[in-house]
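User: I'm new to structure prediction. If I give you an amino acid sequence, what do you actually give back? Let's try with this one:
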Amino acid sequence: MTKIDTAVVIGLGVMGNNLALNILDKKFKVIGYDIDSNKRNQITHNLYFNIDNLNDLEAYNNTALAVFLMLPADKLNDDNIAAIFALLHPDSVIIDGGNSHFKDSIRRVDAFHKMQFNYLGVGISGGAQGALQGPSMMIGGNETQYNKIKHLFEAIGASFDQISCARYIGTSGAGHFVKMIHNGIEYALMQSIAEVYALLKTSGAFTPEEIAELFKTWQNSELDSYLLRISANIISEKEQNDTVYVLDQIKDQAKHKGTGKWVSQFAFDVGVPINGINAALESRFLSSDKRLRTKINRVYSSEYQTLDNFKSKESLIQ
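Assistant: Good question. You get back a string of structure tokens that encode the predicted 3D arrangement of the chain. For your 318 residues, that looks like this:
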């Protein structure tokens, strides 16, 4: 089996651009395309080539390519994907690296397989920094097609304890399904950290520095996580001549892209309780509506737990 050593990245936003840089850093050639010419030209590298039009891919159809679609889910449609396949060498593989719904991935993987096109649905986690330095990748589709570019995934993916975080999950939409579940769990963890921080802060018993130190001690326990570590780092950070905490300057509105609700919808469909994830999602909905929250606060007074309700700081933490 001939290994693919050239990648195409379609969609050079923050994620796509960083993924392209990651691939280049691992000594693979990259062909970049974005509808925005400024984004096409922002990378300078001896292994990087950009194209002005997707039809220009036809000039490369003498060799198999790994084509990463780094586009929003609402920008993908089956006809456009099929048109890209028509320009490629038959052994090329298209990788949907966007936030597609797992049911769309199931449909596309199965439909394109019948057309003898190689298509993988890949959940990519780690954000922009992960795309640049090594993301976690959850890969779904035909395993034979995955094996064609396994070396590329493992080269650009993260690793933990020398184990690759670019893993083949299973057929069809398995990759995007696991990414969906991952997003839901992440929502619940972030909400838990936020609620602990709010309880400790509003109690009046803990300074931001003390909360940060507490979070750092938890990093030596089963509570440790990437989210806890970055929370500990930002809680006590100051700006404006060390007089104002960064968190106090951030607008208290959490946005959501819609992908988080998919796991709740699926859980309802199959009758599985995911109370923590559902509560976290609802908190995001409420957080995003600043006008409604302000109105509620004028009508109902807020009652916070204070240290007076507890015997000591230690009992509050417990």
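You can read the tokens as a compact description of the fold. Here is one thing that stands out. The radius of gyration is 23 Å.
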